[in-house]
């Protein structure tokens, strides 16, 4: 079947991804057949650019493109909000799927993070089939084929981590093929991971060693190795901690764990030894330094990023919604603070001397204290990851206080006391902790009343060097190389400004990932692959309230239990380690067996 491409869409998104600056000069045309596409270098580039647009999973695992579906909207945060990191606010609206599915409502009808990317796989397979006969020079054909194979591997990884084994389709299907080819059965989970790794091995050396200039936003050799580092680590932990079911359609034999850990380790080592990347470490202030990893474009840590500009998608741009939705107030909708962090995650950040960060909640609630006392001597990453009462923002201090304590001990929650409003201007009904990571204080969060909100220019970091060190540490540890594991973890902690470890355990490696990679779309997948999600995600989490003490200007602290709400009970069940294929897909293809438990 012929591939038909919309030129209008292609031209628009070629610019958005900064992948191609050529102008298509074939006028007037609305659609072009694939036969014509692969005769024209500009159209070939536009075709490949369209593939990027058709992969919303590049934007923090979003499952659909468009102004209200992709990372230009609240859906960029769904992956965080179904984990133990945060929950979505806007209590009178709550558009996020995460709000429904994290409370035990995921069933055979699916909906959570669902992405069945076979339309994109078909686009890529067609590109791989047609490109060799194009008029492009041989070196360009070689590099573009490698790029397409990387994107196909990324698509399959995005699906296998969701569903387990899925059909591997590596050529364009034709209506004349047998029914078994047109309606394929699921391959084993192990076979899919093996395919991903083999594709990376085949294409990595044909990709540019580094991406620069107009190729920023496209994969390099080391982006491919980063995908291998991550995918093989997932496969290794699934083999180690998971269970084989449906004759291997889900699960990987335990005997394969070491092989995958070795593949992950080797890929991480290749990136580390290349010397092409380094932990970002230019700012003397450790908190400022950590914030700038996500604000300074193309810094030493960035291996592969989805690029954004400051223009809303509805007007032809490629802006991101993070600044608008997660910012403190003021905000154009009078909201902000969409994604609110749980107190337990904040407590996961240690003190700088390495002692645990968990609050003595009884002691904290029994006295009046300042926010400086409450959050003293924390891992500098804490102050770069969260904002809360008295956090500096745009020259002011944020105010979450929820009531004023008078000298007689009574608390007022309306009106004012001594000229001070009873409540602050931030959302004190949520967890009391906002997400600072990726927020740019110079961004105008008032320019969004007319759907112009997706205008953050911050790039989304798909792979960064710190993750490679964490992958290296985990794989090395599982292979018995604790010395290398410790060294990688201590590089992360040294850059952060926190006490180094003298030895390392599996739990400490997992903990370091939780802290370093918070709100980067990793936590949900990590607890799933470690098979700890049933315990880690089925928890009644907490928030914090600040009651202003009118006499001292300090605060009476209240811990808010069950902050999600009394009727919203977080629940992750064993079957949720895999998402359902859904009734619609298994009905359309009788050869697809549904995942266990649905």
UniProtKB/TrEMBL annotation:
Annotated ranges, domain SusD-like N-terminal: 117-232
Which Pfam families did the record assign? SusD-like_3, SusD_RagB
Q: Does the keyword Membrane apply?
A: yes
The record's keywords, sorted A to Z, are: Cell outer membrane, Membrane, Signal
Please classify the protein's predominant subcellular localization into one broad category.
membrane
Q: Carries keyword Mitochondrion?
A: no
Q: Which superkingdom heads the taxonomic lineage of this protein's source? A: Bacteria
Its GO CC terms are: cell outer membrane
Domain RagB/SusD residue range list: 301-598
| Location within or outside the cell | Cell outer membrane
**Family designation:** Belongs to the SusD family.
Q: What name does UniProt use for this protein?
A: Starch-binding associating with outer membrane
Biological source species: Mucilaginibacter xinganensis
């Amino acid at each position: 079947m012929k591939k038909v491409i919309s030129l209008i869409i292609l031209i628009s998104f070629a610019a958005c991804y900064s992948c191609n600056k050529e102008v298509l000069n074939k006028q007037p045309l609305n659609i072009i057949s694939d036969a014509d596409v692969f005769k024209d270098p500009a159209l070939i580039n536009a075709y490949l650019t369209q593939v990027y647009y058709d992969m919303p999973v590049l934007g923090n695992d979003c499952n659909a493109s468009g102004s209200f579906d992709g990372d230009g909207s609240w859906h960029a945060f769904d992956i965080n909000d179904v984990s133990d990191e945060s929950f979505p606010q806007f209590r009178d609206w709550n558009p996020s799927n995460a709000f429904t599915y994290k409370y035990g409502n995921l069933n055979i009808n699916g909906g959570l993070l669902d992405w069945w990317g076979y339309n994109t796989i078909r686009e890529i397979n067609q590109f791989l089939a047609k490109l060799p006969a194009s008029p492009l020079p041989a070196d360009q054909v070689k590099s573009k084929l490698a790029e397409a194979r990387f994107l196909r591997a990324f698509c399959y990884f995005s699906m296998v981590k969701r569903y387990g084994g899925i059909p591997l389709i590596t050529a364009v299907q034709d209506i004349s093929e047998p029914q078994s080819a047109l309606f394929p059965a699921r391959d084993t989970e192990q076979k899919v991971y093996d395919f991903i790794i083999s594709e990376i091995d085949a294409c990595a050396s044909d990709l540019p060693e580094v991406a620069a200039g107009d190729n920023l936003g496209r994969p390099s050799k080391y982006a491919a190795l980063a995908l291998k580092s991550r995918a093989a680590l997932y496969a290794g932990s699934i083999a180690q901690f998971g269970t084989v079911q449906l004759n291997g359609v889900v699960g990987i034999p335990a005997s394969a764990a070491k092989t995958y850990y070795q593949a992950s380790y080797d890929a991480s080592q290749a990136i580390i030894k290349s010397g092409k990347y380094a932990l970002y470490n230019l700012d003397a202030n450790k908190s400022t330094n950590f914030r700038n990893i996500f604000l300074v474009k193309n810094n030493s840590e960035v291996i592969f990023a989805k690029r954004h500009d400051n223009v809303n998608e509805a007007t032809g741009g490629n802006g991101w919604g993070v600044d608008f939705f997660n910012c403190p107030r003021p905000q154009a909708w009078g909201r902000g603070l969409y994604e609110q962090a749980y107190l337990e995650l904040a407590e996961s950040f240690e003190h700088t001397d390495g002692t645990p960060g968990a609050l003595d909640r009884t002691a904290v609630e029994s006295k009046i204290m300042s926010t400086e006392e409450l959050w003293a001597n924390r891992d500098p990453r804490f102050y770069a990851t969260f904002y809360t009462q008295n956090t500096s923002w745009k020259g002011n201090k944020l105010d979450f206080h929820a009531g004023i304590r008078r000298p007689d001990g009574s608390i007022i929650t309306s009106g004012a006391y001594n000229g001070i409003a009873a409540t602050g201007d931030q959302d004190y009904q949520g967890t009391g902790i906002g997400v600072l990571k990726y927020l740019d204080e110079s961004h105008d969060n008032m320019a969004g009343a007319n759907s112009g909100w997706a205008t953050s220019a911050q790039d989304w970091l798909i792979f960064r060097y710190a993750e490679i060190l964490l992958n290296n540490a985990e794989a090395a540890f599982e292979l018995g190389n604790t010395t290398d594991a410790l060294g990688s973890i201590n590089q992360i902690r040294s850059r952060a400004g926190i006490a180094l470890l003298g030895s390392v355990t599996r739990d400490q490696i997992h903990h370091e990932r939780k802290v370093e990679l918070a709100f980067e779309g990793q936590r949900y997948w990590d607890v799933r692959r470690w098979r700890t999600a049933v315990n880690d995600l089925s928890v009644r989490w907490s928030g914090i309230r600040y009651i202003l003490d009118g006499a001292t200007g300090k605060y009476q602290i209240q811990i808010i239990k069950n902050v999600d709400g009394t009727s919203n009970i977080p629940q992750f069940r064993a079957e949720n380690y895999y998402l359902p294929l859904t009734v619609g897909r298994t009905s359309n293809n009788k050869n697809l067996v549904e995942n266990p438990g649905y």
